[in-house]
From TrEMBL:
This is Glucan endo-1,3-beta-D-glucosidase. The keyword Plastid does not apply. Its EC number is 3.2.1.39. It comes from Helianthus annuus (Common sunflower). GO terms for molecular function: glucan endo-1,3-beta-D-glucosidase activity. InterPro entries: GH, Glyco_hydro_17, Glyco_hydro_17_plant. Belongs to the glycosyl hydrolase 17 family. GO terms for cellular component: plasma membrane. Residues 1-26 form the signal peptide. GO terms for biological process: carbohydrate metabolic process. PANTHER family: GLUCAN ENDO-1,3-BETA-GLUCOSIDASE BG1-RELATED-RELATED. Keywords: Glycosidase, Hydrolase, Signal.
Amino acid sequence: MDLIFLIPFSCLLFTLSGAAIDPTSGVCYGQLGNNLPSPSKSVELIKSLKAGRVKLDNVNPKILTALSNTNIPVTITVPNKIITAIASNQTLADEWVTSNVARFYPKTKIQTVLVGKQVLSQPDNVTWFNLVPAMYRIRKSHGLFEHFYPPSSANFRSNVANTVIKPLLHFINHTKSFFFVDVYPYYAWASDPKNIDLNYALLEANTKWYLDEPVGLFFTNLLEQMLDAVYFAMKGAGYPDIRLSISETGWPNGGGVDQSGANIHNAAVYNKNVIKILTEIPLRGTPYKPFVALTSFISALYNENQKPGPETERHFGLFYPNGTSIYPINLSGKST
């Protein structure tokens, strides 16, 4: 199983709550559709999922207002397109926080602010080098891996390791924040279905296992293998104790004719297994970091018909745009 692929990441800037980590899975509330339910209807659907938190890839005032007084922890995101401007302008950073955080907090339980989405997966390397300065600006106002196999030898891409990643990890470590990663075993499996067992990618029990011989760790699913690759890469960069959080994970419920693994059955199996693994008591963690809590967001709330990319991108939802459940699921980990 020779695996080399990118794991995109988002960066935690700060949290507005010191509450203990709740492993209950959250949901990504995407809005790239012209036929989606209203924010108020969407909040009711989020409640029906027993979601532990909700993540927005942008700041939508109507959604943040609908989430007020619900006590649902909310994660918002500073958009990629303004990172460079904020990096050199404290006034702009102050205005962003005032308009998008202070305006709604604490009625809306904004718990986490992310700076950027999949920044290092984008070709605009100007944004790469403005990422950490932008994080400092915002803080003051209030695909990533080159080698993945085996996990213990994972390292960050050489073109960003020293100039971007190490300053970023220094900031996260100094502020006791989290390193957020988007982890999609589906894409790893789809890129090499002959060598990656489907059940291993779906996190099914009693499937094939993989031995990382240099460190003697056994992996029974691809998700934990990918997460431990991140841990080992951070260790190699000099930051072995930074905590991880899964900013996105999921499996498509549909796709093109050549995407046979993208279907409702597999989506339900994967997402239910993710929730089961992450909410186990006692905490499961990963082979390298056992008993460590991991927060997560399931992507996504809806099938979004305006998302760009291959057909699978528009089929990650837990609900159809009319509010009908695609398959039964409970994000709390109970009765899943």
